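WARN retry 2 of 3 for item q-0093 after timeout on previous attempt; input resubmitted unchanged.
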Amino acid sequence: MLDENELQPWVELGADQRRQLVDVRQVFEAWRHVHQDLQHRFAGSVRWVTRRGHDYLHRKIGERERSLGRRSPETEQAIAAFLSGRTEAKDRASRLAARLDELAPVNRALRLGRVPRVFARILRRLDEQGLLGTHLLVVGTHALFAFEAAAGVQLRSGLLATSDGDLLWDARQRLSLLLPEARREGVLALLQRVDHSFQMRAPGDFRAFNSDGFWVDLIRPEDRTFFATSARATVGENAADLRPSPIHGLEWWLNVPRWEAVVVGEDGYPVRMATIDPRAFALHKLWLAQQPQRDPVKAARDRAQAQVAWRLASTFLGLKLAGDELRGLPASMRALAPDLEAAPPSNPEVETTPRW
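OK item q-0093 returned
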């Protein structure tokens, strides 16, 4: 007779795993805070420039340089504070990075590494460039990693088997807020900085793949106002970049709460993952499974993922389907809540890989 735990689509983390994960998250959050300081607060360089017999404090970031004022006790103090602050931040970042290096093999030994190595590296790059959680969200199967991490469990392999990662582009966000590299190069170039073998299937396509057969899909809501919001369907300014593919129903995902979690990649290093609320994920997956044109095999997996996302949200995260948080979803989708709550436990060992 099967144990009750063997019937669950997840395994709860052990005490050692939980302690390790808490330590990893704390160190990572501290490192990320310092790293962001180095990218923004202490970015660029400062120097004195002589103009017409007077010294002026200049700061240069990228190709832009501006004056911060004539030499004075205030500007002298400003340059001293900048230089000492940057030195201290670099030292702290180095020490925290070394600590993450120490934790990585332990994470692997405790089997905490969950996110495929290449996708974890992609998320780190997107986060560094200010794209993750603002312009791009993780959707599809990989979002389950964020939900399980928040719940303190690990889902069984069948629910997570996939060889691609889906990124939802929110075109409402202004590109001018991005770092220059992201604006200039776009998503494809950022992927190639992670793995030079990434290439598009065809010019202007929405899919890129690497030499190991891992795919990254750039998708967007099927919205009539899309091109009015952004004159170009690329994330960067490069016309050779990926072009997001319009998918019906994804417009609702931009109107529900966001969900973030620190997860661990297969390489043992932590990574920030930004996606949508697990309840919205579950309701959308159930709605998708009921669409007449949906492939039966994919529909079965949709239902399984919908059920497990909801069970994690309700069992471990204390979330409910009633409330104003999900008002961004259409009434017809919210009406599926009773079906979701009444659904039997899903079969976690479905091994098919769905496509949108």
